[in-house]
Amino acid sequence: MNKSRPWPDTLFTRMFLIIAGLLLLSQLAVYWFFNIYQANPQAERLAQNWAQILTLSEALTPAQRQETESVLLHQGLRIVPAGAVRGHNPRLPVLANALQLLHHMGWPQAQLRVDGQRRMLWLQTRPDATLALAMPMPHPPGLPLPWFKLAAILLLSWLGAYLAVRQVTRPLTRLMQGVARLRGGDTPADLPEAGPADLRRLAERFNQTLRDLHRLWKEREMVLVGVSHDLRTPLTRMRLSAEFLPAEEEARSEIIANIQEMDKVIHQFLDYARSGEQEPLVATDLGLWLKAFILRQPAGVVWHPPAVALPKIPIQEVGLARALQNLVDNAQSHGSAPIDVSAEPTADGVLIRVRDHGPGIAEAELEAVRAPFAQAGKGGGVGLGLAIVERILAYHHGRFVLVNAPGGGLEARIVLPSAP
């Protein structure tokens, strides 16, 4: 049962988004805290300056006010009529905080207007005041973050997240590729034993597992080949002796048939052991090769040429011939003639079909019969034929499936890729 997975589904994407988000939030938090700790002291300084100026302006007579205007001009300040006031209420936090502090300093009715275009501030002691104090707008640290700074922070966060996540996911990607090749029957290269200690130990254990598996495969093949080879010599002597037994013809024929059956079993063991040999892949005209293969088959095996020419495919000629021969033998043992063999090009390679006209196999057993030592009938052998096909196809990076053909019979399908 397939369950819907949350997006995103890959480790790289999840870690990238988490780390990039944390880096971005940390950068914004640092910027925000910096502004807060800088803006509050500046708001206090602004409020104190404004309070001093307002106190001074309230205490001056009109004559004294004119005398102090020249001094105020040197400070960038001007006393103007209230009708000249322009702008809106303060939106920047530092200005709004300064105005609130000014209210608490004894000027509860003070008003502040901001003219952003002319970058001017207008300060009045109360709404009905006839005069206002004009001053240049300060440059508080609480200004909004410019877009290019935000873009730079975002870019650096993404870059840092990518580099951090890549250090973790790159070895895991190599491990995943190695496991996939191992599962496909191929022998992957050793992983680089570098990087952090955890990933380094993981690579070391994977490489050691590969060496252990390789040794076990070699030992198994040696045992199969050795035992099978040693058994064939006495079986040959038994068969020759049976030919000269004084027994009745029927009994002698039964003994010889049993010996031949044992020899066939040993032959399957040898084929299974040899199916792991690393025969090189050679680009081959598959159409001509299949035609030559069919010519070596007995009557009842029918070749259906493809409508279009088959491409050249890299194959192990001996190995693929052994696999197809096992499929043909399996069809002859468990099915009925004719045995139809056909091939057709696909988008990424070639599809080969071997079909008999027998009763087929129950749907529930189609997967099970492909396992080693599985048997679907009384055709003889030990059930290694399809396992040999599976193993050889793994070296071709191909696929092998069994289906019940429409109209009856079992159909074996081999898909060979155009590139391994």
Protein described:
This protein is α+β, with helices and mostly antiparallel strands and 420 residues long. The protein has three domains: 1-183, no CATH class; 184-274, Orthogonal Bundle (Helix Hairpins); 282-417, Histidine kinase-like ATPase, C-terminal domain (Heat Shock Protein 90). The chain contains nine helices and eleven strands. It has helices at residues 11-59, 62-74, 93-104, 147-183, 197-243, 249-274, 286-295, 317-334, 385-395, and strands at residues 78-81, 111-115, 120-124, 131-136, 282-285, 301-304, 312-315, 339-345, 349-355, 399-404, 410-417. A five-stranded mixed β-sheet has the order 6-8-9-11-10. It has a four-stranded antiparallel β-sheet with strand order 1-4-3-2. A hairpin with a 5-residue loop joins strand 10 and strand 11. The protein is rod-shaped, with a radius of gyration of 44 Å. The two termini are 32 Å apart. The mean pLDDT is 77.
Radius of gyration: 44 Å
Class by alpha and beta content: alpha+beta
Number of strands: 11
Shape: rod-shaped
Number of domains: 3
Largest sheet: 5 strands, mixed
* Spans where pLDDT lies below 50 across 5 or more residues: none
Neighbour order of strands in the largest sheet? 6-8-9-11-10
> What is the N-to-C order of secondary-structure elements (H for helix, E for strand)?
HHEHEEEHHHEHEEHEEHEE
Supply the number of helical segments.
9
Span between termini: 32 Å
Mean pLDDT metric? 77
Share of residues in helices? 40-55%
Query: Per DSSP, what share of the residues sits in E-state strands of 2 or more residues?
Result: 5-15%
